[in-house]
Amino acid sequence: MRVIDTINAPGAIGPYSQAFEVLGLIITSGQIPVDPADGSVPEGIAAQAEQSCKNVRAILDAAGSSIDHVVKTTCFLADMGDFAAFNEVYAKYFTSKPARSCVAVKALPKGVLCEIEAIAEK
After folding, report:
1. Which of 14, 55, 113, 115 qualifies as a FRET site for 90, CA 20 to 30 Å off?
2. Tens of pLDDT along 79-93?
3. 100-114: per-residue pLDDT in tens?
4. What does the pLDDT look like over 29-57, one tens digit per residue?
């Protein structure tokens, strides 16, 4: 196992790693839309989805993989009413259309609107 850590994505806000590489897979922790440069969170679902996708991409890049190698994502939305707007942004990044689960949850860390976790091949 190898821990993946990059300054190009937000640091963990709890006792976990950004990602692990194991058995040829990169498994990311959920990425909320925090800008790693200054810790800010953009407003609105489109901007937040964009930042979450960028954070996932940065971790995969640091691991020597890429967003094109993602085989599965799990997406969390604070409001399923944001599903269409979230999908519009998500589709720009995950063009290979990996397997996906997308669920609404009661709340997300820091009051954000979305979170994305991914599994990619190396």
Report:
1. 14
2. 999 999 999 999 999
3. 999 999 999 999 999
4. 999 999 999 999 999 999 999 999 999 99
Rounded CA separation 108/10 (Å): 15
Distances from the Cα of 101 to the Cα of 40, 46, 77, 98, 117, angstroms = 27, 19, 11, 10, 10
Amino acid at 53: C
CA–CA gap between residue 66 and residue 41 (Å, rounded): 24
- Average pLDDT across the chain, whole number: 97
Q: Which two three-digit tokens encode residue 93?
A: 């990044």
The count of other CB atoms within 10 Å of the CB of residue 118 is 28
- Report residue 115 as tokens: 């979170």
Active site residues: 102
In single-letter form, the type of residue at position 41 comes to V
How long, in residues, is the chain?
122
